[in-house]
Amino acid sequence: MSYVFDAPPQPSLAVAGSADRFPIRRIFCVGRNYEAHAREMGKDPTREAPFFFTKPADAARDTPCTIPYPKLTENLHYEIELIIAIGKGGSDIPEDKVMDHVWGASVGIDLTRRDLQTEAKTAGRPWDWGKAFDNSAPIAPIVAIADVPSVEAGRIWLAVNDEVRQDADLADLIWSVKEHVSILSRAMALSPGDIIMTGTPAGVGAIVPGDVITGGVEGIGELEVKIGPRE
C-alpha cells in the first residue's frame, strides 16, 4: 500500500530506563476530577458522572522541554496530572480488571488556553481550541506499572519558578483510576497506546514566557517545562 504523501511520524513518548518508546494512539482527559479544582472553576464538586475530552496524539511532548507560548491566547494555564498509559485494549472493562490493561504511568501537564476555553463554555461550544493545541501535553517518561508504587495515593504537585502552586494527593481524585478508566471503556474500546490524563488538583493559574514549570507525582516521576517566546 502507498499513500498520496508521506505518512506523519508515529507520536510517542519516552519510556523510563529504556531506549524503547511508547506509541501514542489517543489522548483522553478527565475533566474536573478533584473537588477543590471544581470549586475554583465555579462548579459543583459533587460526584457526578465523569466527563472526558481529547487532545491529538501529537500534542504530547517529551520532557524536559521548552514550549513556545501558544497562539491566540493571553491566558495560558498549567494543570498538573497523573498520566495512565494503556497497554492492553478492551471494552466494558470491570474496575477490578483495569490494572491488567495499564502498561504504565507518568506525570504530565494539561496546558490550557483558558480564555478560549471560557469563551467556548459560555457559547456552549466544544473545548478543542482551549485544550487541543500544539504542544499542549508535555509528559515525563512513562514508567512501567510494575515499577509504580501506587496510582491511588501519593503527592502530586507543581511549581512555577520554584514557587509551589498545586499540592495535593492522588487520594483526592473524585473518580479513581480504576473507576474512570472502567467508565471510559464503556463509551469506546480502549486500545494499546491510549493515554489518559486523569484531572488536576486546585491551584491552576497563568504562566508567561520565561516561566519554568516543575512538578511531579510521588514515586512515579518529575518533569520540567520552560515557556518560550510567543509563536
Give structural attributes:
231 residues; mainly beta; Fumarylacetoacetate hydrolase, domain 2; globular; five-stranded mixed sheet
Question: How would you describe this protein?
Answer:
With 231 residues, this protein is mainly beta. The chain has one domain: Alpha-Beta Complex (Fumarylacetoacetate hydrolase, domain 2), CATH 3.90.850.10. Helices cover 13% and strands 36% of the residues. It is built from four helices and 18 strands. It has a six-stranded mixed β-sheet, with helices on one face. Strands 6-18-17-13-14 form a five-stranded mixed β-sheet, with no helix packed on it. The protein has a three-stranded antiparallel β-sheet with strand order 10-7-16. The chain is globular and about 40 Å long. The mean pLDDT is 95. This is Fumarylacetoacetate hydrolase family protein. Keywords: Hydrolase, Metal-binding. It holds the Pfam family FAA_hydrolase. One of its GO terms (molecular function) is metal ion binding. InterPro entries: Fumarylacetoacetase-like_C, Fumarylacetoacetase_C_sf.
Topology:
Layout: E1 12-14, E2 21-23, E3 27-31, H1 35-40, E4 51-55, E5 60-62, E6 65-69, E7 76-78, E8 80-86, E9 102-109, E10 112-113, H2 114-123, H3 128-131, E11 137-139, E12 143-144, E13 155-160, E14 163-169, H4 177-187, E15 195-197, E16 205-207, E17 212-217, E18 221-230
Parallel strand pairs: 3-15, 5-11, 6-18
Antiparallel strand pairs: 1-2, 3-4, 7-10, 7-16, 8-9, 8-15, 9-12, 13-14, 13-17, 17-18
